[in-house]
Amino acid sequence: MIKMKERRVGALRKLLKVSLTGLKKCVTVDFPFGPPAFVAPIFRGQPEYDEEKCMGCVACSMQCSASAIKYVDEDGKRVLTVYLSRCIYCGRCQLICPQDEAIKLSQNWNLVTDKVDSVVSTITIDLRKCENCGTYFMPDKQVGAIIDRIKEKLEDSALKEQILHDVELASHYCPDCRKKLAIKLNLHTRKYV
Amino acid sequence: MGWKKWARTRSPWIFHAHCGGCNGCDIEIAAALTPRYDVERIGIVLTNNPRYADIMVVTGIVPKAMVPVIKRVYNQMTDPKGVVAVGACATTGGVFLKDDDNPTYTFGGPVDKAIPVDVYVPGCPPKPEAIIVGIAQCIQKALAKD
Question: How far is CA B41 from the centre of its chain?
Answer without folding.
Answer: 20
